[in-house]
């Protein structure tokens, strides 16, 4: 039994030495739950192979069409990177439920949601799995991903599902988590003529592919007409790429210095959807406040 005692001793030492992670104190409110009498939008899904900007990549996507949308009319647009994590109504963000409730309450405009996953190269493998293109697409500081969305992907969605997105950049928002968060900012930064609302959850404004320069760029560049909501927590990542909480605080400080329309919610959460999902309704109400469609 000596070997069993040794194993038990090692387990006890490991458990007592490991930090205990407390449950995060963020819970969903009523706008993140199904409500009686609220019309539910339709969720469609598909797969897309790029033949242009990211030639050869394949990605899944989902399209949310609100019940209030009338064919032939023009709707607002909100794009979500890492779309599967946002469209799933059983997970933390529950975007379709929140959209249903807020659109019904007229706290946000009639908005079509486009949820897009990063691409993979199905013919190339890494460790036996398709090679992922996520970091290249999301962390690169250029207009490449913006061109993919604006010139290639969104026109395909509009045509395939016979929907019309507003051309008004004030009526077009973009969102993401982690590298998807910095990607959302990059799209608006590069193309404020197409997107002027940004929602970033635990954004990777760190040196993965040079994103740590954004606070300096914001301070030294003429302010752009972007409204941005940042969420992060004190238990976010700290690694060779940088310190995520510090990077988000630097972003917020730069946005304040340059007098952007911004809001920064800083809590105690980690690198996950929990806090961002809990405050998603408030985030969207703030982001879409005072929006008036162009006639």
UniProtKB/TrEMBL annotation:
Lineage, highest ranks first: Bacteria, Pseudomonadati, Planctomycetota, Planctomycetia, Planctomycetales
The name this protein goes by in its record: Enterobactin/ferric enterobactin esterase
Secretion signal span: 1-22
The UniProt record lists the keyword Signal: yes
Spans traversing the lipid bilayer: none
Organism: Polystyrenella longa
Record's keyword annotation contains Endoplasmic reticulum: no
Keywords: Signal
SUPFAM superfamilies xref list: alpha/beta-Hydrolases
InterPro entries linked: AB_hydrolase_fold, Esterase-like, Mycobacterial_A85_antigen
């Amino acid at each position: 039994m000596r070997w069993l005692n040794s194993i038990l001793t090692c387990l006890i030492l490991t458990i007592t030495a490991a930090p205990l992670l407390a449950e995060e104190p963020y819970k969903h409110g009523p706008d993140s739950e199904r409500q009686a009498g609220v019309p539910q939008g339709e969720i469609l899904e598909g797969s897309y192979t790029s033949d242009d900007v990211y030639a050869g990549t394949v990605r899944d996507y989902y399209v949310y069409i609100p019940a209030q949308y009338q064919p032939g009319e023009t709707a607002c647009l909100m794009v979500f990177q890492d779309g599967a994590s946002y469209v799933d109504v059983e997970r933390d963000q529950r975007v379709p439920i929140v959209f249903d409730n807020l659109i019904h309450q007229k706290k946000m405009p009639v908005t079509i949601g486009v949820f897009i996953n990063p691409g993979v190269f199905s013919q190339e493998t890494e460790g036996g799995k398709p090679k992922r293109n996520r970091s290249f697409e999301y962390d690169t500081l250029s207009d490449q991903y913006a061109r993919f969305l604006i010139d290639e992907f969104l026109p395909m969605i509009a045509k395939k599902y016979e929907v019309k997105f507003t051309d008004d950049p004030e009526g077009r928002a973009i969102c993401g988590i982690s590298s998807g968060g910095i990607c959302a900012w990059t799209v608006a930064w590069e193309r404020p003529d197409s997107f002027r609302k940004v929602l970033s959850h635990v954004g990777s404004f760190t040196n993965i592919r040079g994103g740590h320069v954004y606070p300096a760029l914001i301070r030294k560049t003429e302010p752009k007409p972007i409204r941005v909501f940042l969420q992060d927590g004190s238990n976010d990542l700290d690694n060779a790429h940088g310190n995520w909480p510090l990077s988000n605080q630097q972003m917020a400080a730069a946005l304040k210095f340059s007098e952007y329309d911004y809001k920064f919610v800083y809590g105690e959460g980690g690198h996950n959807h929990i806090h961002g999902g809990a405050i998603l309704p408030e985030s969207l109400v703030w982001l879409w406040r005072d929006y008036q469609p162009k006639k």
